Amino acid sequence: MAFSPPSTHLLKFVLPTFFVLLITLFFLTFHRKESIVSAAYKEHGILWSGAQNNGIAGKKATYIKEAQEWEIDGSFDQRPLRGLCERTEWQPGLAFECLASYGGVGNVRNTVLTCVRYAIEAGATTLIVPQIRARDEDLIGLKNGKDLPFTYMFDEDHFISSLASTCPQIQIIPHLDDLSDIPSARKPTKLIPKDLGTDFRVFRVMNFASKWRAKFDGWIPKFGAPNGFSPAEPLVVSIPPPIFEFPTDYDSPEFIATFGRILRFNDHARRLAAIVLYAMNTKYNLDINPAKIGVPDAEKYYGAHLRTAIDATKAGFAPYEDQAASYLADAKKHKLSVIYLASGSAPDIVRFTGDAAVHNISTTTKKRLLEEKDEYKHALEEMQELSWDQQALIDYLVLLRCSAFGGTWASSFAWNIVFRRHVVVNNGIWVPSKAAESAKRDVGVRDEPGKVAYGDKINTIFGDDARGIWFELSMWP
């Protein structure tokens, strides 16, 4: 019988024990790391990126990363905004506070941009980062919710850095409370900018933009700061959300096309939209290049905004029958067999899906795409934690990419998507419609299915041709 020395017996016992302890330590460490990351997400809304997020790896991770960083019109051309700021006569000590914007993303985005445009026109050297007012859970009450930070919808770092590089004359202040140690800043003076004149187009869009600065300068000694103002004793002017009133055509076509780029949706929404796009691209074999900028490829998918939620119904938007008929006919016209549907009405999503199937058209939504595979489980859970308006950011980004888009005239959401897409139709230059140039239409008869209020080769806003001209006259792409 062979004899084994004591050291050999010891090794046979110690080595297995050592490996067991090592493996146990590894899993305990990994579990603790996972718990820390999960806790950070729950507290701060941080997306867990990389291979640990939904099993993303390799080509899939690259696809989603490229989709997340994508902008339909490519890199931000800062020259038009920088040129405007260089020409502006600035007033040291003048601060603008944009009061909390409310409503859907189309309204919020436009009111924030318009307020910033007023601030530049006035020569304000300080700007308070705007806040956003949450919508009531019933979707109808727009002004009764609590005020939320800018990051509720937008990328605050991008906003601040964009203005810093184009308008260095403006100091960005996170909150009005940051000026609380200055007595004159404790009592902001409210101003409704359009009240400085009486000449309007289509009853609501200013027709005196070229005179507004002079009128504002005349308002200051009478109502704003009778004793003057300075950096040491600033004048803070509070601006309520300016709803479709500043004429975009006061600025150059290049400026109109690029000014909106100071706003970008927050990374959370952009990443979830990228995952939704990946899921749709994979399911339907659409072969969508996630990084391709410019006019979207034909023959991929149709984007429809079915605006029939309870708030739209109460506001008198076109009924389901009219909207659905228009979108299905348009999808068939463009020979598209997949529709990405954005809608806040669950029953109408089911109804539309059935109506589309009759025409051999498949319908999908962000929720359906994320529900279909376990690999999207975490993304689905994250999306369901978002508010109704935050989830709309995901739809907005996916709809920007569609081959053809259809919306209804009363929806600012639809118009905003169309205008961003319209910029690339004309190679980065804003080209107004003939109706906008004449600005003769305003209100008209009841909509009829299939009638077009606005359109180009990749976009259609359905409605009577006497509807909604103020959107084109006052909405930033």
User: Proportion of β residues?
Assistant: 5-15%
Q: Any idea of the CATH class of the largest domain?
A: Alpha Beta
Strand order of the largest sheet: 12-11-10-13-15-14
**Biggest β-sheet description:** 6 strands, mixed
**C-alpha end-to-end distance:** 89 Å
Number of domains: 2
Low-pLDDT segments, ≥5 res: 1-56, 440-448
- Helix % is 40-55%
Rg: 27 Å
How is the CATH topology of the largest domain named? Rossmann fold
Number of strands: 15
Structural class: alpha/beta
Q: What is the average per-residue confidence, as pLDDT, rounded to a whole number?
A: 87
Q: Which CATH architecture of the largest domain would you pick?
A: 3-Layer(aba) Sandwich
Number of helices in the DSSP assignment: 17
Shape: globular
Question: Overview of this structure, please?
Answer:
This protein is α/β, with parallel strands linked by helices. The protein folds into two domains: 79-253; 267-474, Rossmann fold (3-Layer(aba) Sandwich), CATH 3.40.50. The chain is built from 17 helices and 15 strands. It has helices at 6-44, 58-69, 79-87, 105-122, 156-166, 209-224, 253-258, 267-284, 310-314, 320-333, 346-357, 366-371, 377-384, 388-400, 412-425, 434-438, 469-474, and strands at 91-98, 124-128, 132-133, 147-148, 171-173, 189-190, 200-201, 205-206, 235-239, 302-306, 338-343, 362-364, 404-408, 452-455, 459-462. It has a six-stranded mixed β-sheet with strand order 12-11-10-13-15-14, sandwiched between helices. The protein has a five-stranded parallel β-sheet with strand order 5-2-1-9-6, covered by helices on one side. A two-stranded antiparallel ribbon has the order 3-4. It comes from Calycina marina. InterPro entries: GDP-Fuc_O-FucTrfase. Keywords: Carbohydrate metabolism, Fucose metabolism, Membrane, Transferase, Transmembrane, Transmembrane helix.
